[in-house]
Amino acid sequence: MSLCCWLILVAFVPMTSGTNPGVKVKLTEKGLEYGRQLGMASIQKKLKTIKVPDISGTQKVSPIGKVEYKLSNMQIVNVGLPKSAVALVPGTGVRLSIGNAYISLHGNWRVKYLRIIKDSGSFDLNVNGLTISTSIAIKSDETGRPAVSSVNCAATVGSASIKFHGGASWLYNLFKSFIDKALRNALQKQICPLVADAVSDMNPHLKTLNVVAQVDKYAEIEYSMVSSPTVSKTSIDLGLKGEFYNIGKHQEPPFSPVAFSLPPQINNMLYIGMSAFCADTAAFVYNTAGALSLYITDDMIPQSSPIRLNTRTFGTFIPQIAKRFPGLMMKLLVKTVKTPIITFEPNNATVQATATVTAYAIQPNTTLTPLFVLNSDASVSAKLFVSGMRLAGAVTLNKMDLTLNTTYVGEFQVRSLDNVLQMVLKVVVIPRLNVQLSKGYPLPTIGKMKLVNTQLQVLKDYMLIGTDVQFTG
């Protein structure tokens, strides 16, 4: 991994500009500093692979005359990058600079002079005062994923010292300045291409970016960018689409994202703001897919409960049911009739759902006879939390209001069923919903990315995740 891991956060495929994002991401200077630490290890490893070609030539050395020389089998022994920095360039991108670097190498030499005299030995070269500066460009590839490259790279070798071992090394001392220059030039030509390689080596990792992340059999979420990233002095800010879709069918919802802004933050490496729009598109997708409906039968009710789904229990509240359908089991169908609405207020996330509750009597031949249909307006509170690389949640019932929609057994007091149906919601519907919510929804990620020191706040119209990040493997 290298510094470029962080550039996934600014390299999603650009979408239509002018659209408000459903998700916002802020990469802070603390996050960029962590990326620098990763990047130095990668670049140092890459520079150790420098291949210096053999160097040969002739030089006139007084009083001997023409001397033929060759330097061969040159290998990098050590690379040091003691000083480096990354900086945000407002409106542009990221600038990486390395100073006071050094490279040590070892090789062999041989000479021929006076036409017949040959000599050989080894040498050590130390290059000091090496400086490297490069910018990192981000674009999208043909698959709609990010690709990074090094641009405007410059490398300068400050000074070099060479020491020869064996043979008539005094010869080299007479013209080593010429060899020093040749070696410095050879090294200098290698450095920027290798830095570029270190950056390009991140592209296979960037291809793991979940621009479209599958949630389950019903839904996927898209994390493409809606506009170019904004680079300031303290952070890189970007807007992602953050929209749920039915798998294989990208139908836009009948509502649009509302603009929101992340407050200035510096404590964590990364901040992710997910708006109510993002959550509302999830509700739209599941409602469209017909996933927000549930048949409830008596075997779902805890055995310890005195209330059973049969005509005897319901006949206590609606006598005509027990008279007309004695001794039958019942089934309830709870089904949303419109997309639930999610609201974010400070420290409070609520879901407002409108549904129908249809009661059936199960005949001996298993056919269903409708008894009544109720309208239900329910409000639940949601607790949100981060689990691994997913956003998860759990809900509890706040209140439920029932009204009569249709009756097939004559008029009755709907209020008499409040306690029964609230119990059904609390012990059957909500636990099943929480099982699904606990599985969570994928956050934008790349490779083996891990969130640490994560905190979640619910604010006005969005939730804010503040986190540090680790890359492993």
Number of beta-strand segments: 23
Q: For this structure, what is the CATH class of the largest domain? A: Alpha Beta
Number of domains: 2
Q: What level of helicity do the residues show?
A: 10-25%
Radius of gyration, whole Å: 35 Å
Overall mean pLDDT stands at 87
At CATH level 3, the topology of the largest domain is Bactericidal permeability-increasing protein, domain 2
CATH homologous superfamily (4th level) name of the largest domain? Bactericidal permeability-increasing protein, domain 2
Tell me the β content.
over 45%
What does this structure look like?
The structure is a single chain. This protein is α+β, with helices and mostly antiparallel strands and 473 residues long. It folds into two domains: 30-206, Bactericidal permeability-increasing protein, domain 1 (Super Roll), CATH 3.15.10; 212-471, Bactericidal permeability-increasing protein, domain 2. Helix content is 22%, strand content 46%. It has helices at 29-47, 170-200, 203-206, 276-288, 311-317, 319-324, 418-439, and strands spanning 23-28, 55-61, 65-80, 83-89, 93-113, 117-140, 146-156, 159-165, 212-214, 219-222, 230-231, 235-240, 243-246, 270-275, 293-297, 329-336, 341-345, 348-362, 368-387, 390-407, 441-442, 449-459, 462-471. The strands form four sheets. Strands 2, 3, 4, 5, 6, 7 and 8 form a seven-stranded antiparallel sheet that branches. β18 (348-362) and β19 form a beta hairpin. α1 (29-47) packs across α2. The longest helix is centred in the middle third of the chain and has 31 residues, at 170-200. The chain is rod-shaped and about 125 Å long. The relative contact order is 0.13. The model is unreliable at 1-18 (pLDDT under 50).
